[in-house]
Amino acid sequence: MEEGEEQLIDIIADDGVGISEAAVFIFTDGGGGIAELRPRAFAGSQSVTLRRHLSSDNLLLDLPRIGDLQSSEQRLMRENGGSSRNGNMQFSDPLMRPSADDEEFLRQSSSSTTASSSGEYPMAMSGESSPFVMSPWHQSALDNPLDLAGANPRNGLITSLVREEGHIYSLAAVGDVLYTGSDSKNIRVWKNQKDFAGFKSSSGLVKSIVVAADRIFTGHQDGKIRVWRVSPKNPTVHKRIGNLPRLKDVLRSSLKPSNYIEVRRHRSALWIRHSDAISCLSLDEKQGLLYSGSWDKTFKVWRIADSRCLESVIAHDDAVNSVVAAFGGLVFTGSADGTVKVWRRELLAKTTKHSPVRTLLKQECAVTALAVSPAAPLVYCGSSDGFVNFWEGEAQLAHGGVLGGHKMAVLCLVAAGSLLLSGSADKNICVWRRDGGVHCCLSVLSGHTGPVKCLAIVADGEEEEVGGGGAARSWIAYSGSLDKSVKVWRVSEQPPDALLRAPMNVPADP
C-alpha cells in the first residue's frame, strides 16, 4: 500500500473483537514498520495507529480514547468558527455515551452524524436528537410505557451454537440446515441446530455464503468465490468443485490484452476476476444468476449453469458492501462511498447488461447492508450511522422513512414476511414489523457480547392466531457475531398486546 492510497481493511482489536470492514483508512508513512492510518471521519484531526499481526492479515488497533476524539472535535469547532463539521459531538446525551467495551466501535457509529435520505438532512448525535432518543422504540417507552426488550414473549432465544473457531462473518439458512462462515476459513454445517459437518477453504476468511439448489457459493477475503457440492452418498461430505472464475476462463482471457483493466496505479487485472475481497453475494434463482460485490468497487454477474462471468460493472467510488438482486429486474448496490444505486438488468443473447437507473441515497457515512422484502416492493438500507432508510413501490421507489433503533452502526439486515431484523455493532438485534407504511419495533434481542455481523431467517412453519381470526407467522432467525457464536431466535409477526392497543408510528422524512 502506497502513501496516500485508500484501502479497506478488516480490523481486529487487541481484545479480539472485530471492527466492520466498512471502515475506510487513509495510509500515511508512519515509519519504523508501523503503519499509521487515519480514519476518513477523523482525517486531519485524529490519527489511529495500527500494527500488523506477524501471522495474519488482520491488524491490531490502538484506538483513541473518547476524550481524545472529543478534544479533536472541539479543535475542529474552534477552527470552523464554533460549529463542528459533524454536528454537536460532545456526547451530552448520557444514553449515547459508549461503554469501555464499545470504544472500539465508536468510529462506526460516530464516523458521520448525518443521516440522509433522498434529500440529505443533518442529525446531531446528542441530546434529544440522538439516534437512541429519536428511535421509535425509545419514543414508545415515553408515550406508551413498554419494555420492548421483553415485551413480546413470542420473540426470544432458542439456543446458542458455539464452536470456538473464529469470528462469525456469514450465514446461510435453508430449511433446517445452517451454514456458518468465519475468519478461521472454516464453513460449519448445522442441522436441526446441532453440529453436523464442516469443510475448509485453503485461504481467505468467509465473508458471504449463498445456497443455490445443490451448490454452495462462498465469497472470501482473498477475492475468490469457491463452489461446493454436497456428496449424494454422504451428506456430511462437501466437495469443492471449482472456483469463480474457472481456471480455463482465466487462461483463455489472459491471452487478450483487452481483457485487462487497471485496478489501481501500476496494477492491472483480468476483468473477470475480483482484485480485492468479496464482500457480498446475491442470487437470482429465477434467472440463474449469481451477483458478487467486492471492495474493488465492482459487482460481477455470473451464470450459475456454466460458471461464466457475464459482466463486470464498476459501480461505486469505494467498496461495494452489499448487492441484492430484487424485484422487476432491478439490482441494488450499497457502498462505503455512502450511496445506494439502482441498476436495471437486460438479458441479452449470451450475456447481461446492467444500466444505472438512479441513486436512491447519497450520504457521508458508509452504507453497510441492504435487504429487500420478499412480501412487498420494499428496499432497506443500513448505514454506519445506526439508521435504516427504506423505500417502497416497485415503480417509483419513494422514500418511506428512517428507522432509528441502534446506537451504533447497522452491520446486517434480513427481511421476511412483514418483519425486518437489523443487527448492529451495539450487539443488539431490532425486530421491526411493517403494517402498511408504518414500522414498529416489536423486540430488541440482546445476548451477544460482540457486534452482530450477519443474519439469516427461515420460516418456522407455525402460525399463531391473532385478533379478528387472522394468523401471524413465526420465523427462526439466526445471528452471527464477532463474539464467535451463533444464536437461534424465534420471532413472530404478531405484536404484543400492548402494541395492539397503542401502535407506534414511525415518522417519515424529517
UniProtKB/TrEMBL annotation:
Keywords for this protein: Repeat, WD repeat
Taxonomic classification: Eukaryota, Viridiplantae, Streptophyta, Embryophyta, Tracheophyta
Entry superkingdom: Eukaryota
Name of the protein in its database record: Uncharacterized protein
Positions of WD repeats: 271-312, 313-343, 360-392, 403-432
Biased composition (Polar residues): 81-91
Residue runs in coiled coils: none
Species: Zingiber officinale
Entries under InterPro entries matching the protein: JINGUBANG-like, WD40/YVTN_repeat-like_dom_sf, WD40_PAC1, WD40_repeat_dom_sf, WD40_rpt
Region of interest (Disordered), ranges: 71-126
Extent of Low complexity compositional bias: 109-118
CDD domains: WD40 (cd00200)
